[in-house]
Specification:
It is built from six helices and two strands, in the order ββαααααα. It is mostly helical. The N and C termini lie far apart (about 65 Å). The protein has a domain at about 50-160: RNA Binding Protein, Prp18, Chain A (Up-down Bundle), CATH 1.20.940. The protein has a two-stranded antiparallel sheet. Helix 1 (about 50-75) runs antiparallel to helix 2 (about 85-100), helix 1 (about 50-75) packs across helix 6 (about 145-160) and helix 3 packs antiparallel against helix 4.
Length: about 160
């Protein structure tokens, strides 16, 4: 917003070029306008090719693997925990499974969770902690409500393995 004095511009006012203010009157190159690979900026139609079907089935298989592994590890780790810790872990993991089943997790995060749980099953504790760190650092906004459950699960599973 410009101040009351002539010639002074606010931090968010459009730039002035050669006495003109606001956006340039030069029209953009039509080849660069809209979505790349489409004509007229139209959104391409949904793909019905077999690859799209395979991607969907892979996504569902990945989600099923994650859910099954979380439940299996939870059943293994819960008996040795104090009641309060077990209830807290259960609450967080239930929230995570709800996000997973609701499709609210990114494909990248689902891939990281798949890797984490695979490594946990293999018993490679150093790699498990690295995978957990990757999730925490790269997906903080998605995991904030339930990561404590995963951390507790990993901690308890690694304790059992040693």
């Amino acid at each position: 917003m410009a101040s009351g004095k002539t010639g002074n511009k606010g931090w968010n006012d459009p730039p002035s070029i050669g006495g003109m203010t606001g956006p340039s009157s030069v029209s953009p190159d039509p080849a660069l306008a809209g979505n790349s690979g489409t004509q007229g900026g139209d959104v391409p139609a949904a793909s019905t090719d077999p690859q799209g079907v395979q991607d969907t089935s892979m996504l569902l298989a990945n989600r099923n693997f994650i859910a099954e592994q979380v439940k299996m590890w939870q059943e293994r780790c819960t008996p040795g925990l104090p009641a309060r810790h077990a209830a807290d872990m259960d609450r967080h993991l239930t929230a995570m499974l709800g996000d997973l089943e609701g499709g609210r997790l990114s494909a990248a995060l689902e891939g990281c969770l798949h890797r984490l749980l695979s490594l946990l099953t293999e018993g490679d504790r150093a790699q498990v902690h690295d995978a957990q760190s990757v999730i925490i650092l790269n997906h903080a906004s998605e995991i904030s409500s339930w990561m404590l459950g995963i951390k507790r699960l990993v901690h308890e599973a690694c304790k059992q393995a040693s």
